[in-house]
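Reply to dn_fold:

You asked what the input looked like. This is it:
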Amino acid sequence: MKSFDSAWTAAAAAIVTIAALVGTVLGAPFESGLIFLTGGIGAILLAIYPRAATADLPSPTNEEKRGGVEARDLLDALTDPLLLIRDGRIVIVNEAAMALLGRHILGEDVRTAIRHPAASEHLAHPLGGGTDRGIELMGLGTRDQRWLMRVADLPDGRRLVHLVDRSLAHAAERIRVDFVANASHELRTPLAAILGFAETLGGEAGAEEATRTRFLGVIMKEAQRMQTLVDDLISLSRIEADKHRVPDDAIDLRALVGEVTRVVQDQPASRDRALEIDASGELPAVAGDRAQLSQLLHNIIGNAIKYGRAGSPVRVSLAPADAGMIRLSVADEGDGIDPKHLHRLTERFYRVDSGRSRAMGGTGLGLSIVKHIVERHRGRLDIASVPGSGTTVTVILPAAPDPASRST
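and this is what came back:
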C-alpha cells in the first residue's frame, strides 16, 4: 500500500515539474504558472490524504446509508401526530398527522392545516423558547375527540407541534363523574325516605300502631335497597380490581347452575315461574371464579324472572361452543327490549324503564357486573331481544385446561 502511494506521489511531483516547464517554455505569465503549480499540489494532496483518512475505517453499512429514510420510518411508527414547522409552514410531518389532518398538509401554513381556532391563536404567539404546557383542542378530527397540543421551540428557530389524543382519558373521567353522581343519587333517594319516615315516627303518628308498622316496613324496605346498592358497588369495585388476574379454577358450571336455580326458585317472585334447564351431553369444566360465576348466574336468571311475563318459563341452557368454549344462555318470554337500548344495557345505572326497575328492587348495576365478570373470565357477552317476545342473554366462557396438559 505504501509503495502504491509513493508511486502516486512521484507521479504527482512529475506533473508539477512538467507543468512548470511547459509554462516556462510557452512563456506563460506568472499567474498561469501559479495555477499550474497549485493544480499540481492538489494532485499530490488527492494522492495522499484520501487514502490516509480512509485506509483504516470500515465502509458505511446499508443502515447508515439509509439513515434519513430510517429516521422518517421512526417518525411514522409513532402513533402521536408530529409536525415540524419553519416560518409558519409544515416542513416535516409523520403518517399519524396526515391521517388526522390530511395528506395535503405538507408545505401548508400550520394554522390552516390544523383548522382549529384555539390552535391558530396559540401558534400565532411566540413561546420564548422551551416547551409550553399545551392546550386542549375539542372537536379536532371528530366531534368527540379531544387533543392536547404541545409546542416546542427548537434552537434553529423551527417549532415542533405534538398532538396527544386525550379522548379515552376524557371519556374515563366522564364515566367516573357520572358514576359518582348516579351512585350519590341512588343512595340519596332511599336515605331521604328513611329519614322522612323516621322523623314522622318520632311525632304523633308514631303513637298509632298501624301507622308505626307501615312506616317501619317502608324504612326496612329502603334500608335493604341501600344495602343492595352498596353490595353491588363493592362487588363491581372488586371485580374491576381483579380484571387483570385471569381466574383459573376448574368450575363445574352444570352443578353451579343447579345450585343457583334452586336458590332462585325458593324466592317469592319465582314461585309462579318454571325454570327449565337444558344441560344434556358432556360438558368440560369452566376456568373461572366460583363466587363471581354464581353472582353472574343470579343476576341474569334473576333478571329473566323479574322481567318475564307471569306464568311464562325461563329457559337456561348449557352447551359446548367453538374453540374450547362453553355457551350459557338464559331466555325469558317477557316484553322484550327495543333495539335502541341494547348497546347501553351494560352501562352502570342505565335502565330501560327506571320506575319499573326500582319497583322491582333493581340497582341498575346488575348487567354492568355481568359484563365485568365476563371480561375478567376472557369470555363474550351477547344480549338479543325481540320486543313482545322476550330476551336472551348469552355468555360464552373458556373451558378449563385439561389437568393432564397443565401437569406437563
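The longest strand covers residues 390-398.
Hope that clears it up.
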